[in-house]
Amino acid sequence: MNYTLNRLTDHSKESMIQELQRVAKVLNKDTITQNDLKKFGHIGVRAIGNKFGSWNNALVAAGLKISREYNVDDKYLFENLKKIWDQKGNPPTYRDLKKYHSPYSTKRYELRFGSFTNALNEFITWNDTKETKQTQSDLSLIQNQESLILPEKNSHPKKPLKKIEYGEPINFRGLRHAPINEQGVVYLFGMISKDLGFIIEAIRTDFPDCEGKREISGKKGRWEPVKIEFEFKSSNFREHGHDPELCDIIVCWEDDWRDCPLEVISLKKIIQSSQNLS
Questions:
Q1: Average pLDDT taken over every residue of the chain
Q2: Most CB atoms within 10 A, among 5, 78, 246, 253?
Q3: Cβ of 197: how many Cβ atoms within 10 Å?
Q4: Is 228 exposed, middle or buried (0-12, 13-18, 19+ CB in 10 A)?
């Protein structure tokens, strides 16, 4: 009897990536779970996490999809945008993430950076800083090879401060400015949902964003469930590729979708109407 442990002895990133890919191939899946690695792998989950910083980071490095998006480094989010941008030749859109098989959803970028536009701006800053460091590294190599004496330069360029932007002044119940993104719409709706006749059951990040109830028109004392999606503009619902059949109401700041098949509640119109009445 040969008593041996079939364990991975090489704990380099390259070997770990190959092991993750091997398990995925054995299971014929485009992603694997930690339990899959425990059952079929030759290395522990903790070792993977220690080497890559998180389980998801390891999956992305191995070219595998992720099933749960958490503890993802900004580096991997930015590298994903760069890959899509380079393939497309233009800035990515919401639909491009699905078209180019992005492992990260638009919600992940919105939750991390406030909006998808902010994520693109942060990516540009990250990429510029990365290229600056690479250029300085190449220059240092030339200096060492050719013994050049050049003036010393700052190797850590200061990241420009990001200016805060505000919406138009509305001074509504302590909210000084109008929303400029979906998060602002969610906050403002929370302030007035009761006034609009809604009872809110749940708020989540999955589509649709909100489940609630409201009294049926013409049937006093009878209530019906409603599914609500929050958007900054009503047309964002269409741009995000959401299915109208799975939603009842779009709550937004600006209603710019003329032929929208759903009921639209424009918070801008409601606020302006209430202020005009006062």
A1: 84
A2: 253
A3: 12
A4: buried
pLDDT digits 0-9 by tens, 107-140:
778 877 778 888 888 889 888 887 766 666 666 6
d(CA 154, CA 149): 15
For residue 100, give its domain range: 73-156
| The two three-digit tokens of residue 17, written as one number | 């990536």
Sorting pLDDT into bands at 50, 70 and 90, what band is 221? Answer: very high
* Whole-angstrom distance, CA of residue 175 vs CA of residue 68: 34
Indicate if 192 and 263 belong to the same structural domain. Answer: yes
Q: Are residues 273 and 212 in the same domain?
A: yes
pLDDT of residue 247: 95
Q: Of 171, 179, 138, whose CA–CA distance to 155 is shortest?
A: 138
Domain boundary among 68, 93, 114: 68
Residues 50, 53, 55, 61: what is their CA dihedral angle, to the nearest 10 degrees?
A: -110
Is the whole model's pTM more than 0.90, yes or no? Answer: no
Q: Do 8 and 43 meet the contact criterion of CB atoms below 8 Å apart?
A: yes
Q: How many residues does the chain have?
A: 278
Least confident piece of the model among 11-20, 62-71, 106-115: 62-71
CA distance 62 to 25: 12
In three-state secondary structure terms, 211 is: strand
Q: Say if residue 201 is in the same domain as residue 130.
A: no
